[in-house]
Amino acid sequence: MKILLLCSALAFGLCTVPASASEKEALTLLKTERQGLQSLSQDRLQAMISPPTTSHEGMQFTSAWLDHQPKAEGGNEWRCLAEALYFEARGETVKGQFAVAEVIMNRVKSGRFPGSVCAVINQGTGKRYQCQFTYTCDGNAEKIREQGAFNRVAKVARAVLDGSAPKLTSGATHYHTTAVNPRWSKVYTQTARIGVHLFYRDTYRTASN
């Protein structure tokens, strides 16, 4: 009974205490789970408790459609994603911008990368040209000089975080522009080509499928 009460007190429906666990074991597991929940960002917690959005009616991958959407706003996760799209994909097509955002979210959900949008984007930052997203470690100041372009990609970020965008990359966790040919592209599975970007799913996921 105590174990059941403790589980329900955590909410979110995430209690994973085995039926055979002793009360002491249950308390230890619940403490670990509580700490894990507290470490998640507000945006990710909201995504976990919100029903999935499956309707994409009316969405168009065009600048005109974006321009008609309300101004986007949000917390740190939204800001990190919007900035990544600005520096990585503002010159891409709208569809390409959605695809790049999807790759970042696929990493967040994969378990093989950090568990938040900001952590995924800043992975490796501090080591020149050894980061995951070049703009975070190329030595150049990260200044947003084209506010109009930022406002548009911010709307893309908001739609992707809200789960209102259709999937485009078949689970891709990597991408590169057509101007380069990284070594890993020879062993990963290409899943899509959108605008000037090629998208790939890593071999780990391919094997597990």
TrEMBL record:
Keyword Signal included in the entry's annotation: yes
Keywords from the UniProt entry: Hydrolase, Signal
Cell wall hydrolase SleB domain location: 91-200
MF GO annotations: hydrolase activity
Family annotation (InterPro entries): Cell_wall_hydrolase_SleB, SleB_dom1
Residues annotated as signal peptide: 1-21
Protein name, as recorded: Cell wall hydrolase
The species this protein was found in: Pseudosulfitobacter koreensis
